[in-house]
Amino acid sequence: MTISPSQPMPINRALLSVSDKTGITDLAKALHEKGVTILSTGGTAKLLADAGIPVQQVAEVTGMAEMMDGRVKTLHPAIHGGILARRDNEKHIADMAHHNITAIDLVVINLYPFAATLKNQDASRDDLVENIDIGGPAMIRAAAKNHDFVTICTDPADYRAITDALNQHGGITEPMRRQLAARAFAHTANYDSMISRWMMDDQGLPPLSQQLSIAGDAVMTMRYGENPHQNAVLYRMADRHPRHGVMTATLIQGKPLSYNNINDTDAAFELVAEFDHPAVAIIKHANPCGVATGSDLQAAWQAALACDPVSAFGGIIALNRPLDATLASAITSIFTEVIIAPDADDDAKAILSSKPNLRLMLTGGMPSDSPSHLMIKALAGGFLAQNADAGEIDKDSLTIVSRRQPDAREWQDMIFAWKVAKHVKSNAIVYAKDGATKGIGAGQMSRLDSSRIAIRKAADMAEAAGISGDPLAGSAVASDAFFPFADGLIAAAEAGASAIIQPGGSIRDDEVIAAADERGLAMVFTGMRHFRH
Predict the structure, then answer these.
(1) Dist. CA 261–CA 357, nearest whole Å
(2) Taking all residues of the chain, what is their mean pLDDT, rounded to a whole number?
(3) Are strands 233-236 and 436-441 parallel, antiparallel or unpaired?
(4) Quick one: 72 and 194 in the same domain?
């Protein structure tokens, strides 16, 4: 009889060999009741036999016992021939008969728990190597390749669909086999990517190699993406040393975060991680509207909020210290979408519980820079990848280019403003004084426009607060890239800034330095740019 791939494929023989035993006994019982012969290995075979399900050991089929501590057990023509043979190819059928190979119609495999081992900080390198599955991926790929005739299943969540298909159609339909095969290849690709990423990191090799594979497991299907007509899913990448942040955070209260919430919360937490002193950042649309450090979080909060209390409404608040009751009470005075912090005490949690729509996320720690931390941007037909912007500066690394030397306060404010500018969309201009932002200009096509926006916002906030005088008098201003002309610097000077920090490197640096000297400004060059697009 000619077998067509378009027809539902019956299951007469199944190979079940799983690391995750969830639901496997129920699946095996359902298959046995339909007269399916079940092959299995090791722990899976024992589990099924103990449940009273007849099972044939793979070793009986291959004629060879497992060897090398189980490294070799299914890598045999009696197994792979049964999986790979096309049922409509007379030569394949003849080869099977000649070598006494019986067809395998269903392969149920999930792989050694490499991801779980990777998360175990006590696991040795040998533990990780031994949890690299070889036979499993080979069988998965073989079955997925021959999906015209063979059904592959790598996810316990699909067991019910398989039994339902057998009940309804007497076999597995072609669309279902194709879908399962596509997911199987994604499964092995994810697995190999995870191993490759670990091995590169383990050897201290740069992750930006000739071939870069990015893989993740779906954590949450979002209601929508940036806009309601866009679909979105949150994925988690396996990592030996996961970076504290949104992906390690526990949602203590509030509804699941949206796509935009997650993006903004990540930006906020990465910003406060820049500072050793208590710091607060308030973020809207991935840009800070107020950032400050202080002697404690309460002081930092008040200074950060004062920068732009209007934009702070409905914002994301990030802290680099545990949240306490005093600050929790202060934050509840305005509408806030998310608070993210390394921890929170019980009193703070109790206070926030009165605001059930406010999300509280606790990360368990602060992020530390890692060479394997990548930033990825999708393109049409590809993606860009780069190391995270971990460029650091200190007083000794900066070059004073003005005649006037910065004083101690100006040094502190310049370095603070520079760290904030690193997290502001380009073109970025940040005015700061006494460890707090006073005006922020973000994302403009002209650096001069960014400077003017920052100045105007500072003036508007001062007027709204009833503060007289020049709000930017004596401030430091940071520019994420060089001033191409002196006009941006002149605007800063006219606004009251007394110190400038910028990368330098413009062909008009001499003109810009001269403009600073004419106005008595202190200016330093970093030699480092902080574009953020």
Answers:
(1) 13
(2) 89
(3) unpaired
(4) yes
Neighbours of 258 (CB within 10 A): 18
CATH of the domain at 270: 3.40.140.20
What is the C-alpha to C-alpha distance for residues 444 and 450, in angstroms, rounded to an integer? 6
Q: What are phi and psi of 383, to 5 degrees?
A: -155, 155
Is the same domain home to 435 and 351? Answer: no
Give whole-number Cα distances, 278 to 248, 294, 389, in Å: 21, 6, 22
Strands 499-502 and 522-525: parallel
Alpha helix positions (H), 110-258? 114-119, 125-130, 135-145, 159-169, 174-202
Domain identity same for 299 and 398: no
Please give the average per-residue pLDDT across 245-250, as a whole number: 91
Q: Which residues pair with 15 in a beta bridge?
A: 39, 107
How remote is the C-alpha of 239 from its chain's centroid?
A: 10
- Cβ(38)–Cβ(60) below 8 Å: no
Task: Give the three-class secondary structure for 360.
Answer: strand
Question: Across the strands, what pairs with 379?
Answer: 382
In tens, the pLDDT along 60-109 reads: 887 666 767 666 667 788 888 889 898 888 888 888 888 888 889 999 99
Same domain assignment for residues 44 and 162: yes
CA atoms within 13 A on the CB side of 199: 13
Domain of 66: which CATH number? 3.40.50.1380
Q: Tell me: the pLDDT tens digits for 323-348?
A: 999 999 999 999 999 999 999 999 99
In the set 29, 145, 169, 373, the catalytic residue is 145
Q: Which domain holds residue 463?
A: 391-525
Tell me how many domains the chain contains.
Answer: 3
How do strand 382-387 and strand 374-379 relate by DSSP bridges? antiparallel
What is the pTM for the complete model shown?
A: 0.83
207 has pLDDT over 80: no
What type of residue is 52?
G
419 catalytically annotated = no
Residue 502 and residue 414 share a domain? yes
Q: Is residue 285 annotated as a catalytic residue, yes or no?
A: yes
Alpha carbon distances (Å) from 253 to 42, 340, 372, 492, 533: 43, 11, 31, 43, 32
What are the two backbone dihedrals, phi and then psi, of residue 28, each rounded to the nearest 5 degrees?
Answer: -65, -40
Query: Is the pLDDT score of 407 beyond 90?
Result: yes
Does 309 reside within a domain? yes
Residue 531 included in any domain: no
The catalytically annotated residue of 29, 285, 349, 373 is 285
